[in-house]
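Hello everyone,

My group is preparing for a crystallization screen and wants a predicted model to guide construct design. The compound we'll soak is zinc ion. Before spending weeks at the bench, it would help to have a computed complex in hand. I've included the protein sequence and the ligand's SMILES below. Output in structure-token form would be ideal because that's what our pipeline reads.
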Amino acid sequence: MVYGDERDSFRIGSYRGIPVFLHWTWILGALIVLAVGSFDLLAAIGLVLGATLVIFVHELGHAAILRAYRGRVLAIAFFAWGGECRYVDEDLDPLQRSVVAWGGVLGQAALFAIAWMVVGTRKRFGVSFVDALVWAMLAMNVRMMVLNLLPVRPFDGRHALSLPLQVFRRYRARRTAEDTLKNVRRKGHLRLVGKDDAG
Ligand SMILES: [Zn+2]
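Reply:
Good plan to model first. Here are the tokens for the complex, ready for your pipeline.
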């Protein structure tokens, strides 16, 4: 476990009982963005805050669905390359795992919707901090949603995109169970009829 370890992560607090960590790579990444964007420091700060917010709502989306399934969320952590929601998923079936994987993108979509309702199609506000924050919550957010749905490791798409297949499997399993039950009932019924006839 890379975080939760005090040597490489800082606990910055907790949200609804979930400990939140900053990994050292996040701090380094933020410093690089601030240094590179120092000609417009406010914009750079807006970008870092916006990106962190997008990652946070993504991880909260996973956490919310996990909790709905009574799963245990252990921690949320920020890295330079994104975030991670750490949880115990042994009790989840493949369908539930797929729904949990969608939680991240759904969280991002919720943030996008709220930001869109507030700012609409307006892109420039004349304050570079606000412009960068809005860009992160809208344009960057959408790009990150697409990226997150790639069906390869370590992206959520790997589990999320199998949702239709998992729903179909669940449906087929239920149908098979129902058919078996019907057959048992019919056979039982026939046996009863047979018995009546014999008697
Ligand atoms: Zn995710």
